[in-house]
Amino acid sequence: MTKHKTGTREEWRAARLQLLEAEKELTRRSDELARRRQELPWVRVDKEYRFETDEGSASLADLFRGRSQLLVYHFMFGPDYTAGCPSCSAIADGFDGSVVHLANHDVTLAAVSRAPLAKLQAFKRRMGWTFPWASSFSSDFNLDFNVRITEEQQRAGGVEYNYRREEAWQVRTLAGEAGSEGPVAEIAAMTGTDVATYTRERPGVSAFVLEDGVVYHTYSSYARGLDGLWGMYQWLDRAPLGRNESGVWWRRHDEYPQR
Predict the structure, then answer these.
(1) What is d(CA 161, CA 149) in angstroms, rounded to the nearest whole number?
(2) Contact between residue 237 and residue 63 where contact means Cβ atoms under 8 Å apart
(3) How many other CB atoms sit within 10 Å of the CB of residue 126?
(4) Is there a contact between 206 and 69 (Cβ–Cβ < 8 Å)?
(5) What is the C-alpha to C-alpha distance for residues 141 and 145, in angstroms, rounded to an integer?
(6) By CB distance 3.0 to 4.6 Å, which of 43, 46, 93, 250 could disulfide with 87?
(7) What is the 3-state secondary structure (H, E, C) of 168-223?
């Protein structure tokens, strides 16, 4: 017998209608948040950044590919990684098919990572993705947009990520408890690195607009702020057991058992 609450169809419908009102309110709040995102002040980007792309060396403006808007996913793939972060890979699975639709709305979606371009290209082939992916290996782009920290910064602390200052680094579990590597060590191993190296890269998304030849930074989000970009989470949040996460729950799609 299930331990979950059960009821009649009429009881279910009454409870569902109550939940529907909360869902509608959440939709209205989400619409309002989207409007507020679009009303944020734009910050002019005067610093010159160079990237390596499939087409050669590129500026930040070049990443727009002739469109007026650019969304950058800060994909965790550092120079010392042997493979991309599995959680970032899961997010990329979700947005890979959206690139063509975003382009139809004058938006280019691209990933940017610090790993050399050859590593990115090889991993992209392995995963079967088609989205543009640029290497920022020779620039300060990741540092300036708070998705990379140096070894010195990691030891000293005080680095900003997700709009908070971090303490000096110590080994943590994914739940934030000190003293044990926990699942994060397994995830780091999946990228061919140790915990310290793995966590010097950070995930995020940044938005830019190109107007009259000038690039402006308009928005960035990190950590749990990326949950809405995980296509699978939107499905899992509607499944009976929810996200049902335990241990290391992120896998690359080519590492799952055949079903």
Answers:
(1) 9
(2) no
(3) 13
(4) no
(5) 6
(6) 250
(7) CCCCECCCCCECCCCHHHHHHHHCCCCHHHHCCECCEEEEEEEECCEEEEEEEEEH
Question: How do 43-44 and 214-222 pair as beta strands?
Answer: antiparallel
Query: How far is 252 from 238, CA to CA, in rounded Å?
Result: 22
SS3 content of the chain, % helix, strand, coil (to 5): 40, 20, 40
Q: Token match 């869902």: residue?
A: 23
Q: Tell me whether strands 133-135 and 160-161 are parallel, antiparallel or unpaired.
A: unpaired
d(CA 2, CA 107): 47
Other beta carbons within 10 angstroms of residue 235's beta carbon come to: 10
Please state, in angstroms and rounded to a whole number, the distance separating the CA atoms of residues 60 and 215. 8
d(CA 206, CA 82): 25
Instruction: Indicate the residue type of 178.
Output: A
User: Averaged in consecutive runs of 10 residues, what is the pLDDT profile of the chain (259 residues)?
Assistant: 92 96 96 96 98 98 98 98 96 95 97 98 97 97 96 88 83 45 83 94 98 98 91 85 71 62
* First CA to last CA distance, the chain: 28
Nearest to 124 by CA among 149, 150, 99: 99
- Residue carrying structure tokens 């990741």: 142
Tokens standing for residue 110: 């691209």
Amino acid at 106: D
Q: Are strands 69-74 and 107-113 parallel, antiparallel or unpaired?
A: parallel
Q: Spell out a b/e string for 187-211, using b for 16 or more CB atoms within 10 Å of the CB, else e.
A: bbebbebebebbbbbbbbbbbbbbe
The pTM of the full predicted model, rounded to 2 decimals, is 0.88
